[in-house]
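**Paired protein data**
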Amino acid sequence: AVQSWDVVNEVFDDNGNLRNSFWLQTLGQTYIADAFRYARAADPDARLCINDYNVEGINAKSTAMYNLVQTLRSQGVPVDCVGFQAHLAAQYGFPGQVQQNVQRFADLGVQVRFTELDVRIVLPADSAEISTQNAYYTSVVNACLAVTACAGITIWGFTDKYSWVPDTFSGQGQALIYDTNYQPKPAYAAVHNALAGSTGDTTPPSTPTNLTAAGVTSNSVNLSWTASTDNIAVTGYEVFRNGSLLSTVSGPSTTVSGLTPSTAYQFAVRARDAAGNTSGNSNTVSVTTLPGGGGGGCSASAGVQSQWGNGYVIQPVTVTNTGTAPITAWTVAFTLPAGHTITGFWNAVVTVNGSSVTAKNMSYNGSLAPNASTSFGFQASRPNGNTSVPSGYACTSP
């Protein structure tokens, strides 16, 4: 007998909206609940699953799916399991809070699974990419092992010889744990050791150095540092403000916003690897934010919510009133890398002129009190293999 069915697959866009599919256009939003009910009638004994990609970490898309599953189950719709496809890429950061995300779905009473795992790399592969690939496979296995309701991991293919990746992502490949000659790769050992409970890696990353602060405003600062190294791979950095953990980022730079004008802060960072080993703290950098000013002013900072070979979602782009007086409108300008095209946007009116982009407030989010903030987002396409994202966000207000 069939143990489980993938009943509803890939129903969300990366911004968390339902995909404008044939099913949605023809049957409306109830098609998802109807599909599960029809599936239960056809097979009363099988587990019925919903499955999607870019939902491994906590982001707008995974939260939309979480809310959907929670709502459907509260209505008695037979959603029994949730699948996280986990098509990952070594050149992008490991998704944030994977274990926590999987656990929150499990807490809804569903079985959870990683259903299509692979970790592609840009070719030709180098040792750093292979180390990162090993770390990503290890992290997924460990996340599943840590959640009681995680029933298993399916790797999306057996050998690199027949992987779907090269035909879909130009210049990328070697995503699986067996090579084209059916020989186990280092990624195989990474998966094996994680499943075997090997204590293996106990070596911490090197300590980040040369932490510096730049671009200080009344409520934000840009931090950067020299990247750490690790015997396997560094998977992220923990940012500390005044001795308390503030955030975790994937690369050696970040923008800290939401600070108070005319206030002194101290920042430090440390590195973390896939095994949970942490480095020593970096040097401490002291920052005093600028005065708030006598009138309106604003700042803009952006985060990458998710990205894939030929596209990405930037969300949130946070707009903050950095002045001491209310503002009634704002404009954010930034630059698109060559070959990139905006394919969708929300919570702003966006105008594109060549590589220059201007985003203006909507009627409902232009008014901001001092220190208040709002946000918008956008999705863009880019050439395959291009890993750059927009930069140079600048905010102005009347």
Notes: The chain has three domains: 4-196, 209-288, 298-396. The domain at 4-196 is CATH 3.20.20.80 (TIM Barrel). The mean pLDDT is 89.
